[in-house]
Amino acid sequence: MPKQLNHYLLLIINIFVVFTLAAQAEVIHQEKSLYRNILVEDNGDLRCLKFNVKSTKSQQSCFYKSQPHKLVFNYTKLLMSGLLLNPEPKRILIIGLGGGTMSNTLAQLFPNTHIDNVEIDDAVIKVARRYFGFYENEWVKSYNQDGRIFIKRALLKKQSYDWIILDAFNGDYIPEHLLTREFLQETKSLLSENGILTANTFSLSELYAHESATYKAVFGDFYQVRNLINSNRIILVTRNGFISRAKQSKILKQLVTKLQKYDVDIKLLYRNMTLTQQHQDWPDNTRLLTDQFSPANLLNVN
Amino acid sequence: MGIELLAGRILAPFFGSSVHIWGSIITVFMLSLSLGYLLGGKLSTRSASLSHYGIIFIISSITLLPIATLSQTLMETIFIVIEDSRYGSLAASMALFFIPTVILGMLSPYSVRLLVKESSQSGQVAGKLYFISTLGSALGTIITSFYLVLWFDINLIIYSFCLLLACLGLFAIIWARSQQLSNLASNHA
Predict the structure, then answer these.
(1) DSSP assigned state of A88
(2) Cα–chain-centroid distance for residue B66?
(3) What's residue A21's pLDDT?
């Protein structure tokens, strides 16, 4: 009898071991860049870019090798809500490349749109090209530069963008100079007449209130887009106010089929957009982040 | 060191937060400190006195002021003239921090001159001074980066540093005067 039990136990342990091994991701690339550790992991069909540590928390960008156009992350899907306010952007600026999935998706959606990607870490650009199929052509470009400098130089060259996507805040270290009132003012001036800005932001820490207050101070009331599944929040603002909900719902109808392929449920996003005018969830007297005061990393504790 | 830490913050809006920013800042601080040590040593050979020491403090506080008042215009100009953010940040660090750091660097050898009475003690005095100034740097670093930036605007922190230096300078001058007076008094007696 004890022998049999032993057998069963061994069998259970064996099964357990086999399963955990199968579930464990395989690191296919690892490097130390100037700014961080970069890891590329394969987990079955899913390939992910990670910074610094091997935890799911540090995932920067993922895609399914068999269906590369499908957006995996919630927040990348949330960013698509920008299209409800500006369905035909001609010039797009993305600050923070990650695996380049956002750029690839937008390039597919809008083949005749200029897309400029700005990434501070050259190693990330190389990894995106090599492992995530990030592609560049005459329309899609990438620049190895600090986001703030790129925006300042673009302003000097009198350029403008219809859609600016701020997605530089996924790592452990937050670039504090990309959260300040002065930076947002510069970004606002870089928007075209009906230009929009979507920003992936901090939704859990003390920084939430400071960041929200700063956006409101520069842009006025804004849309917050959430997905109920997890705690991501996207800030959606424009240079010159919002188009009406009626117009948005008209655009929505055109977008539904267009975005299905990318696994983006735009109807859900439309329903989950709230205007801060009606619903402000931070105290009015929150201190703004400025170039003089931006201890973002110290505030970003849960 | 407090100022050096703030330097990163001050430059970031124009030159980013890339690695080369810190390269520029540390290079300029090391260069100007080394020159300051040399100049301070030289100066201490010419009738060194506590009141001159106080004057160096006051000058250092005055030369720190432009970091708060002029930095925006200065960095804007440099940003437009120099496209490469490496050389841009180097030029901006030079323009903002070179002079005050040279003057702050002068204080160390000058202190040695004032404190050493006999050559046999010089090693011990220098050791104590190194101890105090490096410990002070450590404290300045941790207090500024952990707390001051969480509570105050950068400019306010810089003005406070200026005020502190000016007060120390005034204190040294007043102290020197009162000693002169008491010396005179004892000579007359």
Answers:
(1) S
(2) 13
(3) 47
Task: Find the CATH number of the domain harbouring A172.
Answer: 3.40.50.150
Whether residue A65 is contained in a domain is answered as no
Residue A108: inside a domain:
yes
Q: What is the ipTM of this complex?
A: 0.80
Q: Kindly state whether residue A102 falls inside one of the protein's structural domains.
A: yes
For residue A186, is it within any domain?
A: yes
Specify whether the CB–CB gap between B17 and A177 falls below 8 A: yes
DSSP H or E stretch at residue B177: helix B154-188
Residue A215 belongs to what domain range? Answer: 74-299
Burial readout A266-288 (b: 16 or more C-beta within 10 A, e: otherwise) = beebbebbeebeeeeeeeeebeb
Whether residue B16 and residue A298 make contact (CB cut-off 8 A), yes or no, is no
List Cα–Cα distances, A292 to A134, B65, B149, B154, in angstroms: 37, 15, 9, 5
Residue A55 has pLDDT above 60, yes or no: no
Annotated domain spans of chain B: 2-108+141-188
CA distance B19 to chain A (A): 7
Judged by CB atoms closer than 8 Å, whether chains meet at A34 and B152 is answered as no
* Of the candidates A98, A103, A185, the residue with the CA atom closest to the CA atom of residue A148: A185
Composition of chain B by helix, strand, coil, percent to 5 = 90, 0, 10
Classified as helix, coil or strand, A137 is coil
* A284: pLDDT strictly greater than 70: yes
Distance (Å, whole) CA B189 – CA B184 = 9
The catalytic residue positions of A are 167
Alpha carbon of B142: minimum distance to chain A alpha carbons (Å): 13
- In A, minimum Cα distance to B12 occurs at A177
pLDDT of res. A176: 86
Contacts of A278 (CB under 8 A, 6+ apart): none
A121, pLDDT greater than 80: yes
Domain total for chain A?
1
Give the span between the Cα atoms of A120 and A108, in whole angstroms.
Answer: 24
Summarised one tens digit per residue, pLDDT across range B11-50 is 888 888 778 888 999 999 999 999 999 999 999 998 888 9
pLDDT in tens, B49-100: 899 999 999 999 999 999 999 999 999 999 989 988 889 999 999 999 999 9
In terms of DSSP bridges, do strands A223-226 and A233-238 run parallel, antiparallel, or are they unpaired? antiparallel
Tokens of A12: 């259970």
pLDDT at A228 over 70: no
Tell me if B85 and A295 make a contact (CB, 8 A cut-off): no
Residue A116 has pLDDT above 70, yes or no: yes
Model pTM score: 0.84
A21 burial type by CB count under 10 A (0-12 exposed, 13-18 middle, 19+ buried): exposed
